[in-house]
Write a structure and sequence with these properties.
Elements: H1 6-9, E1 20-22, E2 29-31, E3 37-39, H2 93-110, H3 114-133, H4 137-152, H5 161-175, H6 182-188, H7 194-208, H8 221-228, H9 232-248, H10 256-270, H11 277-284, H12 288-311
Antiparallel strand pairs: 1-2, 2-3
Helix pairs in contact: 3-4, 3-5, 4-5, 5-7, 6-7, 8-11, 9-10, 10-11, 10-12, 11-12
């Protein structure tokens, strides 16, 4: 009788037991019933350790993982100013001067190209948006990836690094389902206006072929409601109104923040919440005219739906 491999069947080849145990230190795979050693060694996928004192906090030989957030993906070299050798002896003057020259050459070589300086400035701008808008690391990495593509495609040449980086960050927020309003971008970094960000965003969409989902107005409901102290019942009513409006196509081409503010104002009227259009507009960061116009449009469409249902 030909026995199958334990890797193919996940059985012990001796007794057929399915409960196999793997020792993470030795890599042995053994059977819990008969004790048969199925495999003596395995590939250790963990970090490689240095042969030094066990009490040291980190004994891994591997460094930090590569990250697109760094201009060199985290593979830069750093020459520290050390006046001693490995044994602790004082270096002679000639050796110290040589190490100082090497340190200066190394530092100069890392920023000698225009692309490297460009990426370094872009990272600094991106960090401002990450701090002010509380963006997740995944959003920051996606924004940096989009900016690198724009730089490679020549879209940054002749344009402001700030505007393209802001547009890339805005696109990354939209792609990962955590959209931020252009007004928030302008408040976070006043040097780049929202009109400029919108122009850069359209440029990226046109030349990089980015696939960005349409912003869902319901994402902004909880944020606006928390600022004016609305309860969850009103938020749920606003979400119901928005779902009906989306099904009717009333939100196409409209500012999602304005639509969300109008839906909340309509929900306040349904739940008898005493809030004015001015209160909702201030919390949403839009004008009262926007709330009034979006409210009128939603009301006309939803009342049209209700009348059609009654007639049917």
């Amino acid at each position: 009788m030909v026995r199958k491999s334990w890797k193919e069947t996940v059985f012990c080849p001796e007794c057929g037991n399915e409960m196999l145990v793997t020792d993470p230190r030795t890599g042995e795979v053994t059977c819990t019933v008969c004790g048969f050693v199925i495999q003596e060694k395995d590939v250790d996928m963990g970090p490689e350790w240095r042969n030094i004192d066990e009490e040291e906090e980190s004994r891994s030989r591997a460094g930090a993982p590569l990250s697109i957030m760094y201009r060199d993906h985290g593979l830069s070299t750093v020459i520290d100013r050390i006046d001693e050798d490995a044994s602790g002896k004082k270096l002679p003057k000639e050796a110290r001067e040589k190490m100082l020259r090497l340190k200066k050459l190394d530092a100069t070589s890392q920023v000698n190209s225009s692309e490297t300086r460009n990426l370094q400035q872009a990272v600094n701008i991106l960090q401002i948006y990450v701090d002010k808008l509380h963006l997740a690391p995944a959003v920051a990495e996606r924004a940096m990836l989009i900016y690198r593509k724009a730089l490679k495609a020549g879209l940054v040449r002749g344009r402001s690094i700030k505007s393209i980086m802001a547009a890339a960050t805005y696109a990354a927020c939209r792609q990962l389902g955590t959209p931020r309003d252009l007004r928030e971008f302008e408040r976070a970094y006043a040097a780049v206006k929202r009109k400029t960000i919108a122009q850069g965003y359209r440029l990226l969409l046109k030349h990089l072929g980015l696939k960005v989902p349409v912003a869902d107005p319901s994402i902004y409901l909880n944020k606006i409601a928390s600022k004016v102290g609305l309860d969850q019942r009103t938020v749920q009513e606003a979400m119901r109104l928005l779902s009906e409006a989306v099904a009717k196509g009333a939100t196409v081409g409209k500012d999602p923040v304005g639509i969300a503010a109008a839906a909340l104002y309509m929900a306040c009227q349904e739940t008898t919440q005493n809030l004015t259009q001015k209160d909702i507009a201030r919390a949403a960061g839009v004008t009262e005219v926007t709330v009034r116009n979006r409210f009128k449009g939603l009301k006309d469409i939803l009342e049209g739906l209700a009348s059609s249902a009654q007639a049917a």
